[in-house]
Amino acid sequence: MHGIAHRVVSPGHAALAGARQRVASCRFGRACRALAGRQRGTVLLTVSILLLLAGAAAGLGGSKPAATQRSAATARALAQAKAAVVARAVTVHATRGKHVAPGLLPFPDRNRDGRYDGEGDCVTFGLAAAHLLGRLPWAGDGPPCPRQALGLRARDASGEQLWYAVSRNLVAGGGGGPVNSGMAGAAGAAHAWLVVRGFDGAVLRDPRSGAPLPVAAVIIAPGAAIGRQQRRGMAPAAEQYLDRIRIGGVTYDNADADGCADAVRAPCDARESGEEFIVHPGGAGARAFNDRVVYITVMELMRAVEKRVLGEVAVALNRYRSEQGVYPWLMSLGDPRSTDFKSDLSRRGLLPVHLPDEVFTTRFGAAWNLEDATPTSVTRHSGDAALVPTLEDVLRGRVRVTRVSGRCLWSEPSRAQCTGVDIDSDYFRADLGVPVKRTVEISFSLEDDAFQVTPPTPGDVRRRTLSMRGAGLAGTPASPDAAPWNVRVTDENAFDWGRRELRIDSDTAGALTLSGVRFDLSVVYDDLHDARDELPEWFAENDWHHYIYVALSADAAPGGDSDGDGDCQTPVDTCLRLRIAGEVARSDIRALAVSAGAALAGQNRARGECGGEGRSNGFRCAFMEGDNGDDSTPRSADTFARDGPGARFNDQIRVIAPLPP
Known about the structure:
Oligomer: single chain
Helix content: 10-25%
C-alpha cells in the first residue's frame, strides 16, 4: 500500500468525472457532437446543483450553531433579568414610607413621556391595566415612587431591550392588599394574577392545587421584528415588539394590556380574569411568533421575600436581647388573624407587636401633682355635697392609681396615649370616717424621650414608664389629642355619689407619670423614627406578624438562663432541635424563626384545621408542616424541620442563636 494516495470522492464529483470521460471517448461524428452538447448541459446542471447544495449545506452548518448561540444569549438575558427583578423586590429600601415594602415590584417603562428611558413610569392616581406593561425598567421607578435600580440593562440576542409586565397586586398603590406569604393562596390577593399559557394554549397550573399558576410578573425578549412590526421612531408601541398567535380559535396577544383573559373582552372581573401571556419554546413557529418569556410565580417571589423577613426578625430579636439582656416573651399561637398581638409569657408563638395607632389592653399605674388644671365639673346626687372629692385631693396627687385596667396605644416610640379605670370598692375616706367605692377614670397622653424600661422577667413582660414635669405639661396645644386629658374621680356610698373632673391643658403645671405600661416589640408609622423601630414599619403594614413563628429554648426564655453561660445544653439540655431530611442536624439551638408559606392542601387556617392526628394545636399545623406543625409532645414541640418546597411542605427556617461556627 506504500505510495498509494487514497482519495475520497463525493457522488457529485463522480458524476462530473463520468460525464467528462464519456465525452473524451467519443472520437467522431454527429452523434459525438450531440453527446458532447448533452454532456455539457449535464455538467452545467450538475455544477449548478452542487453549488446550490454546497451553499445550503454551508448555510445549515453555520446557522445551527449561530441559532443555538442566539437562543442561549436570549435565555441568559432573561434569566439575569428575572434574578435582578426578584433581588430588587427582596432588597427594596423600606424607610421612605409605608407604600414601600419587600415584595413590591417596579412599574414598567412605558412610552408615556414619548420615549423609553429605563425608568418605571410610576402611577399614583388612576392606575389602569395599560400601566402594567412596558419595557423592563433597568433604572428603577421614576418619581414619585422610590428609585432603586435593577443593576442590569439586558438585551436579547437581536439587540432588543427586554419587556416586562407586572401584576397589579404588586405595584405601589395597586390595591392588592398586604404583601406576604398568603398572597399565593386561593383568596390571597384583591386582583387576579397574571396567567401564562403554553404554546398549545393550555394554562400553566400550580401542581399543588391544580389551580392556574399565580404569576407575579413576566419578562419578554421580543426578538427581531417579524410580520408587519415597524420599530422606527422614538417609542414604538408594544405591538411593534410583542407578538400574537391564534390557537384553538382564540387570538392570544402578548401586547394586549387590558387586564383580561384574551378570550374575554374588556371590561372584565378583576378577581376572575387576568392578563395572559404565551410561552413559546422556540423552534417551530418562530418566524410567526418569536417572543421568549420567563415568569416569576408569586410563590417563588414570596419565598425569596420570606428570607428577608426572617433576617429582619433575627436582627430585631438579637438586638432586643443585646439591649434588654433577654429575649421577649411571645404570644401563644391561637388564631393568627387576631388583632391583639400581646405577649402571654409563652416561649413559643407569634411576635408580640404594638401596631401603630392600634389600641391594646394593659395595666398601668398613674400619679400626678398638678397646678392650674381646669375643673370642668362638680356633680353630686341626692344633695350630699360631702361625697364630692375635694379639688385639693384630685390636684395634689392624694388620688393615685397603681394597677389601672386600661387601654393604650403607642403613637410614637416615646409617646403613649392611655385611658383607664380603677375601682376600689373599699376606699377609706378619712374626712368622712367611712369607706366608699372610689372610681378613678383617667385619659392621658404623655411624651417622654427619657422613658424608663423594665426588661421582661420570669413572670412579666417588658414595661415602660413615662413622666412629664414642669410648666405646660401638655405642650402648646390646649388639647393635644382628639380628646382632652382628664382626671375624673367619683365616690359613692349605698345612697349617693359625688364627682369631680379636671381637664389638663397647656397652662397646667406640675408632674404626671404613667408607669408599667406594656411595651412589646414596637412598630411606628413615622418615617422620622424608623431607625428607632424594633421591627420595620412594612413588617406590620403587610401582616408578616401573622406568618412568623418564633421558638425559644427554655433556657433562652426570660429568667431561664440559670447559669448565665448562654448554652442551652448545660446544666440541663433545653435546646431546640433542627432536622434536615429526617435526620437531626442541630441540637444546640436557643432561638429560631419559621415562616409559614401559603396554605397547602388540607390546611384550613380560618378554623385551625390540618387533618393531622395527635396535634394539640390546630393552628400550628394549619400554618406549618411536618415537625414544625407537631406539638403533640413537649419534645416534638421543640423539634423543627427544614426541607425543600413542594406540595406538602413550604416552611422556611432561620436559626437566630447560636449561629453556626
